[in-house]
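step 3/5: co-fold with heme C
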Amino acid sequence: MRTFVLALLLAAPALAQTELRGHGGPVRALAITSDGREAVTGSFDSSSIVWVLERGIARAVLRAHDGAVNAVGVTANGFVTAGEDGRLAVWNRADLTRPQSFDRIHAGPIAALSLSPDGKSVASASWDSSLAVTQLAGGTPRRYEGHQGNVNGVGFLPDGVTLVSAGYDATLRIWPGSGAARIIKLEVPLNALSIAADGRMAAGGADGSLFLLDAQGNNLRKIEAAESPLIALAFSPDSRFLAAASPRGSVTLFEAASGKALFTLNGPGLPVWSLAFSPDGKVLFTGGTDRLVRRWNAVNGDHLGPIIIEKPAEIFVSDGSRGADVFKACAVCHTLTPDAENRAGPSLYGIIGRRIGTAPGYIYSTGFVAHDIVWNKDTIAKLFELGPSIYTPGTKMPEQRVGSEEDRTALVEFIEKAARLR
Ligand code: HEC
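step 4/5: write tokens
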């Protein structure tokens, strides 16, 4: 029964309808850059955001995927994102307005990805029951077949060649560079996997069990970690601790060697969908259902506060149109109704016919207000055809584009309707 519930919960399309409510969405995936200064998140709202952690602001919105972004990673010169659309997007810091490559790697949703230790390739796990390893530099992905059903987790062993995968078929598979995979039957469908820097493995089961194995895939230990399925796992950078999250709300920190539970996070923003440690291991980041990235003291579990300081927003009412769908990514920062406040960006209430930089009570950047623009459907469409940094240089609005003309037209029609003065 529990298994069934999770299967439903993980079915992103169903979730999109019940939980998105048109306003951003849960933070499904989370990764921290190796200098600890930025986070990249992936959301059910189909966008990814690069955050400057110290300032708690969005640096760029990465928009390419058609559907939830289920997995993200940090590369030497940018980011990778993967989603429900089976595509892998590679983003270069030099231009975050469009992916450097955007290839359909899988016939089904990608549930997880993992960068190789040398940072040159990325492994993906998919609900098409396969794994793939794609070189960031390009080339045909190498495919690994064998799982019977959804593959939910993948990671590299420290040798950089051996892959480990966790599947809903209740197996953990260890794939050497060549030859057949070793299959470890765990008898519980697996939802999550994390590989420590020292090669230690942890897999999370649909019944809340946590499986710990050593770097050779031996000395299996099973721990009853949660009452509900484990949905995200993360080892600390020194391989000593493991954080495990379940969608019913708990995040528990375990000692990896003994499997002993040390403490459970207690605070707002639970349940969480994603976990990541800071590079120094002192901070645990969680990505939650409340769309926020929160920070926790990784030594004692104290809540340190959200990174993205934003009021839990009231629900923006989607009219079900394509334009409303496109607007979801804007709603993180913009409201549309007269009684709603400014967010990271100004309220767009009455935007059509309004001069640039004139929303009451909002502090614009000086570069932005210096432009001579009146917002109408054409100018707003232009803003997202060219991107804010080109159309309105000097702006603090994170760089983003809406690539398709059809989407831009739908977007501005939706804004015109939803933000009409009343
Ligand atoms: C991560 C936050 C963020 C997101 C996402 C975002 N914006 Fe903005 N937007 C801003 C900020 C900040 C400003 C103010 C810019 C300044 O002062 O430089 C702004 C300004 C604007 C303005 C001009 C408002 C005025 O009063 O002059 C429009 C129009 C606009 N955004 C539309 C959109 C649309 C449409 C989307 C989605 C496609 C979007 N924005 C996504 C942050 C965001």
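step 5/5: annotate
The two ends are 49 Å apart (CA to CA).
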